């Protein structure tokens, strides 16, 4: 049992055996997770389920809940005295003509693992540590510029215990901030720990690569797709296997289970040591991981491997929540409170209309009016001490706006302090995009790309290597203190901003350093000090809707200023967030509960009355600002509505469903041939729904990742995709294979589509899971929904609900649906079964299928759906009506095709907008 008392505060540490901390308090509604050291019951049983998910073999599950060390499928059988409990059905299925039960394997059953391999993971063990990979030493760095002497040590708080998962409908409040987010993070960490457990590898081959450095190579299925996520320096638990004769092991395992396990004796097929192997290198493309195992040079042929929670990756989130909560409860909370919980009193009032032009020398003169307005508002800084929010659907130029904003802020000279910007994004890919665009304007003395020491060189774009810093061990690191302070812009990820916190480079720490040093050298100077002590003058957060609120708190902790000194001018750093709250949010493991962690700080802020109830908000129809509305709180937000990515027909449904019917198409096709391709049902309507009633099937669970998740595929769908891709490439001369994107929510389908295309020489076609395409675009996009099976009569939604419990599929997933629809530029196709897609009453799919039926964009027979549509509550948006008028040749305003409203730059409404040609 665990050595930790459940009544003691938990302070997370990577020094505990096995690299884990106690998880007694990490609970979910369905499962309580034990500590790492808990030994489960000796007996394991087989649970067989029918195709509809019912348990058909009665077994006594006992009163004890499942533990991390158990697997539901083993080779052991229950005794004859076992009695079924109330949770197990005792009814046997109907008999087939051969007298055998008409059963099928449960499609979500975990991979079968022999009991003797499970027993090895339950055996008593001695832990063998490993020399950690050299990494960035934050304490040493801070000491180099005197922070260890002149800056107070960082506060550390014990984590509160016994927190209940909050109701997601309850608003976030300052006084409950820590309790709420610590509870949510614990739930997420528990779910992640459970997921990592199912990525365990059993009897897995290990190959010696370097006997002098004790380096071994393993193959990790799913590494390419971060399933599991593995980084340099991570700990992997390795239990070498000594005996592989299955017949001998089986008999010895039975004896161990019955007589030796309870006595604490080691399993006979196991040497009794668990090695804390360190990830020394990795190749994601080849799914290869290099481990350093300090085992004296012994070369095990196979081993059990377990992936575990990595404390250094999770501690920054918990620490950020605690430090922000402490700051909210301090005596001077105005700045932070206005950033997280803005009130009307925090705004600046606007009493007159703004000028229609801006006195700014633009770096990028292609910005539209809304983009320029956002930049000008932030540069002028007259909207109050609140976050400035930039909301925009895909293709509206949010990142472009952030880049221009950063360049203008750096060039601003009126400020009392020299500008230094921290720019963050949730992912390395998004941060790289920002840095690459900024590198077109800034040299290596102005721009710094801060990478985590765990990032490999192969993952960094070549150009950005020049904008990064590496230490003597060829690991990414921080440059010397003086050099870092000279950069105008630092770009990093939200989580990697914690490097600045650990190195004592926050605004608070730097101000305290300056104040303490000056007090020691010249006390009189401090008494007369009026210059604000602020290094980081602004935080710009791109793709903010994809970050959890605790992730956003990490960079926010960097820029928070020191409490105002008596005579110092208070200068608050600006906080700008850009994102799309209607696209995919943070990627989480605790998807089934959906208790609130999936709501980003960006989305929560936009839902506050301060933004949502503003007269000029998108929800209020983007009303033009007129003199009648004055005075009014100066809007601390901009809605980007001009879409430069997609054809009007592709935008129609997302615009009406998610963006209050306000999107304005500005896209011009690369080729008129694409939108007039004969494969579309109607010219210049490049949207198509292809009905597929072919059955979905179950992939071989033994070839899976051990989770049973993502094992669905559909052969008929694969055939449709292959034929359609070949036709597109043959009939559209300028269309390249890499300009076609195919996505499916099921991993097995992704793999099989890739294989089918490669056999036809089409490996360049971009195929992947939905989440992999967030932020990307392609000329042609095909969405394969794959799931066609429905449950029995009266319970048609059975299998769809199972998908949803596991975070799979695109039904009742509006953000996933919206993300999939908004990747396409010139053509969008959906392959699926209409009856399955609408079986739950999903509003998004009803609207899309109704759109296709109304406009003749369906291939195949939909049967009863064509009658059911009459009773659906569906929308017909402005873009759809404009497309019909264009199709009919309706002209107004001197020959322009009537489309959407637009507003001129001075805020007065003016006529209609023409749809672009093509």
TrEMBL record:
The keyword Nucleus does not apply. One of its GO terms (molecular function) is helicase activity. Residues 1-16 have a biased composition (Polar residues). Residues 636-834 form the DNA2/NAM7 helicase-like C-terminal domain. Pfam families: AAA_11, AAA_12. Residues 367-440, 511-587 form the DNA2/NAM7 helicase helicase domain. GO terms for biological process: regulatory ncRNA-mediated post-transcriptional gene silencing. SUPFAM superfamilies: P-loop containing nucleoside triphosphate hydrolases. Keywords: ATP-binding, Helicase, Hydrolase, Nucleotide-binding. InterPro entries: DNA2/NAM7-like (IPR045055), DNA2/NAM7-like_C (IPR041679), DNA2/NAM7_AAA_11 (IPR041677), P-loop_NTPase (IPR027417), SF1_C_Upf1 (IPR047187). Residues 70-89 have a biased composition (Basic and acidic residues). Residues 1-32, 48-99 are annotated as: Disordered. GO terms for cellular component: cytosol. This is Uncharacterized protein. It comes from Exophiala mesophila.
């Amino acid at each position: 049992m665990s050595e930790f008392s459940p009544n003691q505060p938990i302070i997370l540490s990577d020094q505990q055996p096995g690299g884990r901390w106690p998880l007694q308090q990490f609970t979910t509604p369905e499962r309580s997770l034990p500590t790492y050291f808990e030994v489960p019951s000796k007996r394991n049983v087989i649970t067989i389920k029918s195709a509809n998910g019912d348990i058909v073999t009665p077994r006594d599950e006992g009163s004890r809940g499942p533990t991390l060390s158990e697997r539901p499928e083993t080779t052991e059988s229950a005794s004859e005295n076992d009695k079924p409990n109330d949770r197990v059905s005792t009814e046997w299925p109907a008999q087939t003509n051969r007298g055998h039960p008409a059963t099928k394997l449960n499609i979500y059953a975990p991979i079968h693992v022999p009991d003797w391999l499970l027993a090895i993971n339950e055996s008593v063990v001695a832990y063998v540590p490993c020399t950690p990979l050299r990494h960035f030493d934050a304490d040493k760095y801070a000491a180099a510029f005197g922070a260890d002497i002149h800056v107070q040590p960082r506060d550390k708080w014990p984590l509160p215990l016994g927190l209940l998962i909050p109701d997601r409908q309850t608003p976030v409040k300052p006084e409950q901030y820590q309790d709420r987010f610590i509870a949510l993070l614990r739930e997420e960490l528990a779910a992640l720990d459970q997921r990592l457990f199912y990525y365990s590898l059993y009897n897995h081959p290990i190959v010696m690569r370097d006997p002098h450095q004790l380096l071994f190579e393993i193959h990790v299925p799913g590494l390419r797709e971060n399933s599991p996520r593995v980084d340099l320096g991570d700990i992997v638990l390795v239990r070498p296997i000594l005996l592989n004769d299955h017949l001998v092991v089986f008999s010895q395992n039975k004896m161990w289970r019955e007589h030796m396990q309870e006595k604490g004796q080691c399993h006979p097929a196991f040497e009794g040591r668990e090695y804390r192997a360190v990830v020394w290198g990795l190749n994601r493309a080849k799914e290869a991981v290099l481990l350093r195992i300090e085992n004296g040079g012994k070369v095990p042929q196979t081993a059990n491997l377990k992936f575990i929670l990595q404390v250094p990756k999770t501690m920054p989130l918990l620490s950020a929540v605690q430090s922000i909560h402490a700051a909210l409860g301090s005596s001077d909370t105005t700045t932070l409170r206005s950033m997280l919980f803005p009130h009307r009193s925090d705004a600046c009032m606007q009493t007159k209309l703004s000028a229609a032009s801006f006195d700014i020398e633009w770096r990028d003169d292609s910005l539209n009016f809304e983009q320029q307005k956002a930049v000008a508002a932030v540069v002028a800084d007259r909207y109050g001490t609140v976050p400035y929010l930039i909301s925009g659907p895909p293709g509206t130029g949010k990142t472009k706006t952030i880049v221009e904003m950063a360049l203008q802020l750096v060039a601003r000279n009126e400020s009392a302090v020299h500008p230094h910007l921290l720019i963050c994004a949730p992912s390395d890919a998004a941060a790289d995009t920002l840095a690459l665009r900024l590198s077109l304007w800034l040299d290596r003395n102005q721009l710094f790309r801060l990478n985590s020491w765990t990032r490999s060189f192969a993952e960094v774009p070549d150009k950005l290597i020049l904008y990064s810093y590496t230490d003597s061990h060829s690991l990414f690191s921080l440059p010397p203190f003086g050099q870092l302070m000279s950069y105008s812009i630092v770009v990093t990820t939200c989580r990697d901003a914690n490097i600045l916190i650990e190195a004592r480079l926050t605004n608070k720490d730097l101000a305290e350093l300056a104040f303490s040093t000056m007090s020691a050298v010249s006390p009189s100077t401090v008494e007369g000090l009026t210059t604000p002590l602020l290094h980081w003058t602004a935080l710009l957060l791109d793709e903010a809707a994809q970050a959890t609120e605790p992730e956003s708190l990490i960079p926010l902790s960097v820029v928070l200023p020191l409490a105002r000194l008596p005579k110092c001018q208070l200068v608050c750093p600006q906080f700008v967030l850009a994102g799309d709250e209607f696209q995919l949010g943070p990627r989480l493991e605790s998807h089934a509960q959906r208790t609130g962690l999936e709501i980003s700080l960006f989305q929560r802020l936009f839902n506050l009355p301060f933004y949502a109830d503003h007269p000029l908000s998108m929800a209020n129809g983007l009303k033009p600002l007129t003199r009648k509305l004055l005075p009014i709180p100066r809007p601390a937000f901009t809605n980007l509505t001009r879409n430069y990515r997609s054809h009007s027909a592709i935008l129609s449904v997302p615009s009406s469903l998610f963006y209050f019917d306000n999107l304005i198409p500005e896209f011009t096709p690369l080729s008129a041939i694409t939108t007039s391709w004969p494969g579309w049902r109607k010219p210049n309507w490049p949207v198509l729904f292809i009905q597929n009633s072919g059955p979905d099937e179950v992939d071989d669970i033994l070839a899976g990742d051990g989770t049973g998740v993502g094992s669905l595929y559909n052969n008929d769908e694969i055939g449709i995709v292959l034929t359609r891709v070949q036709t597109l490439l043959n009939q559209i001369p300028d269309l390249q294979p890499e300009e076609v994107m195919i996505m499916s929510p099921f991993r097995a389908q992704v793999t099989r589509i890739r294989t089918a295309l490669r056999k036809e020489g089409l490996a360049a076609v971009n195929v992947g899971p939905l989440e992999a395409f967030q932020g990307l675009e392609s000329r042609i996009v095909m969405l394969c929904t794959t799931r066609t099976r429905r449950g029995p009569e009266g319970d048609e939604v059975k299998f769809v609900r199972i998908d949803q419990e596991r975070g799979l599929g695109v039904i009742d997933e509006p953000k996933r649906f919206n993300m999939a629809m908004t990747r396409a530029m010139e053509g969008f196709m959906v392959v699926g079964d209409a009856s399955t897609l609408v079986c739950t009453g999903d509003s998004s799919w009803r609207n899309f299928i109704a759109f296709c039926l109304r406009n003749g964009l369906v291939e195949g027979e939909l049967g009863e759906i064509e009658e059911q549509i009459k009773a659906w509550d569906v929308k017909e948006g402005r873009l759809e009506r404009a497309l019909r008028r264009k199709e009919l040749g309706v002209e107004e305003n001197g020959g322009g095709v009537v489309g959407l409203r637009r507003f001129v730059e001075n805020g007065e409404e003016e006529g209609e907008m023409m749809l672009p040609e093509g």
